[in-house]
Amino acid sequence: MFINRGEYVEAPKWFRIDYDVSNKYLPEKQLLPTCQSLGEVYLRLEHYKDALIYLKKHLDLAKDATDLVEQQRASTQLGRTYHEMFLKSEDDHYSVQNAKKYFKSAMKLAQTFKENPHNNKSSFLKEYIDAHSKIGMLEVDLDNLDEALKFLAKGLEICDEEEVVEDDSGRSRLHHNLGNVYMELR
């Protein structure tokens, strides 16, 4: 509720209460959504160290639960966090390497879903498309425009293969990002 209203400063307090209660009384798998939410809100607040703590815990819990959908989601968010850290730094090669590592991990997990269809197709597909878009934009930030084009074009190819509707937000982002890359190439 607080995130939806943009009240990011208030949200961590309540997520921490949820985390503490869940950690004390519920099975570990029940911590997945709370860790994901804490990681997300700390990322939005630019508290990267805290975001990484909860997003890595989210990934570890997802691995323990062998929940591939949550592993993919956590990997994408970790990649996004490291990408944001890179953008805020002068020349942070560690963040770039980690962003690529986690985005590629998310894409690999999504490829597994594609090859072995899963009940939650829309979730994997959204994350898969987003991972291509995000790693493409990371390549733009590194001035690797040809690499960016490859990832963004592959994202659109996936949209076509999976018959993603024309007005899908992920497809739209890919078109927008491709437009930006072509503007840079002029």
UniProtKB/TrEMBL annotation:
SUPFAM superfamilies the record matches: TPR-like (SSF48452)
GO biological process: epigenetic regulation of gene expression; meristem structural organization; response to DNA damage checkpoint signaling
SMART domains to which the protein is assigned, alphabetical: TPR
Species for this entry: Gossypium stocksii
Domain of life: Eukaryota
UniProt protein name: Uncharacterized protein
This protein's GO CC annotations: nucleus
Transmembrane parts of this sequence: none
InterPro entries: TONSOKU, TPR-like_helical_dom_sf, TPR_rpt
